[in-house]
Each structure stands twice: as structure tokens, then as C-alpha cells.
Amino acid sequence: xxxxxxxxxxxxxxxxxxxxxxxxxxxxxxxxxxxxxxxxxxxxxxxxxxxxxxxxxxxxxxxxxxxxxxxxxxxxxxxxxxxxxxxxxxxxxxxxxxxxxxxxxxxxxxxxxxxxxxxxxxxxxxxxxxxxxxxxxxxxxxxxxxxxxxxxxxxxxxxxxxxxxxxxxxxxxxxxxxxxxxxxxxxxxxxxxxxxxxxxxxxxxxxxxxxxxxxxxxxxxxxxxxxxxxxxxxxxxxxxxxxxxxxxxxxxxxxxxxxxxxxxxxxxx
Length: 269
Ligand code: NAD
What we know:
The protein is built from nine helices and twelve strands. The chain is an alpha/beta fold. It has two domains: 5-121 and 232-260, 3-Layer(aba) Sandwich (Rossmann fold), CATH 3.40.50; 123-229, Dihydrodipicolinate Reductase, domain 2, CATH 3.30.360.10. A hairpin with a 2-residue loop joins strand 10 (211-218) and strand 11 (221-228). Helix 1 (15-27) packs across helix 8 (233-246), helix 3 (74-87) packs parallel to helix 4 and helix 5 (123-139) runs parallel beside helix 6. Bound molecules: nicotinamide-adenine-dinucleotide (NAD).
């Protein structure tokens, strides 16, 4: 029988943390070695026999030999990543909203411990990461590229990490840098749309798990590609798969979803 992967869930009281815990318990391939959250979230976790703590470090020896999975907030994940590096604990991060400097620091820490970060753990989005640049190239520069994303009203960052990651792929396909061409606000007398631009707009409200629509707007026609996440289980399943994959890997690069799995159809490519 295959050995269970021991995991520590950081942000265990949050929406993603709770979903990861439930899925891990249902799947049976995982043993939960510890649960971490802020002081305010800890009380809700303090039932049963699983060790709980305010940080990865606070869990002490419980974290040894486990893979940590962190879905919290950028500053919290940076602190977890530093602890994981000093403890030698592999870490999967799903948090979004990192600054460029924080991402550079994650790449440094990835030299010390196996570190994985993906702004979106779903199969569908990762397939789109490959297909959208092909579409952009095939359609050519006459097609303007725009994106709209929708998320629940409590999401803290905008545009979503997924929208930015998809935007980077679209920009790359045209030989552009996303920060130089992204337009996320239009208001007032804005004049004609520059050709070298990618609009990424964010809508917020209700309980929407995540919708991303990419528009290719051309002469006389348009193409719309929409990905809709129906539940958080999709992301949670991806995070668990990443944890299993990361266990026993060597440090050296900041791994991402692309490193972990043969996407459907890879055999025919
Ligand atoms: P949430 O607010 O429901 O949960 C976050 C949890 O982290 C909370 O319980 C909070 O108490 C805890 N936390 C915050 N700071 C902490 C700290 N310093 N130490 C320990 N715990 C701390 O948020 P959520 O909806 O679960 O999303 C969390 C993150 O995951 C966001 O950045 C979101 O954008 C991202 N996310 C990523 C994916 C993906 O596929 N990569 C999918 C969904 C959400």
C-alpha cells in the first residue's frame, strides 16, 4: 500500500484550508499532521487529536517529515516560507497577491527547501495557460485581448492571481511585458484604445468561486473563452496533488503546476 503523505495545513480555518482538510480526510491518501491558523481561527480548529498551532514553527516536531500547504495571505505566506526553509519542510503555496519582490524572495527560498507556488491549481486553468498563447498567435495582432474576472465579495486582491497569470501568457505571446500593457481601470475621456494593451477588469460580489473570460476582439468577430470554477474542491484537489508530488523533491527552483503533471492531451502533442 502506498504511504500516506503527511500534511500541515496553514490557514486551516479559512475557506481553502477547510476544503483541503475535508478532501484530505475523504481521500484517505493523506495524514493531517497539524493545522495552523491565526489566534482568532485557532479555537475553531481545537477539536479532535490533530495538533494545532499559530505557525509552522509552533508545531515543532509535528511538522518534521510533513509537507505544508499554505492558503493564507501574502505576508503570512512569506513568513511561512521562511520558516519552511529554516525547518527544511517542503511547502505548497496557493496564496495570491504577491508583489514582484515577494516572488523574487520565494525563488530564493526555493533554493533551501522544495517550494511550490501556483496562483491557480485547477486543471482547466492550467490547460488554458497553454492554449491561450496559441490562440493569440494564431489570431494575430488584429485581435485585441481583454479579460474579465469575477470573484466573491470577500476576495482581498484584484485582479485575481489567475487573471494576472493568464495575462502574462497573453502578453508573452505578443512579445510584451504585462506590467507595461495592463489596463485595469478605464474612466472618463480615455481616448482610443492603444493597440498595445491588455485590459483586465475585476467584478466582485456574492459567492462566486472564480470566473475568468478572455476576449479576442477582432474585425467583424470575437472569440470568448470562459473558465468557471464550480467549487473550491478543484483547487484543493490540485493543492493535495502538488503536496504529494513535492514530497521527496529536491530544492532548486520555485515549482509550479506546469512541473507536476502531464496535462490531458500531452501524449498527442
Ligand atoms: P480565507 O480568508 O478564507 O482564509 C485565509 C486563512 O488564513 C484564514 O483562516 C486566516 O485566519 C489565515 N491566516 C491569515 N494570516 C495568517 C497567519 N499569519 N498565520 C496563519 N494563518 C493565517 O481565504 P481563502 O479564500 O481560503 O483564500 C486564501 C488565499 O488563497 C487567497 O490569497 C486566495 O486568493 C488564494 N486562493 C488560491 C487558489 C489557487 O488555486 N491557488 C484558489 C483559491 C484561493
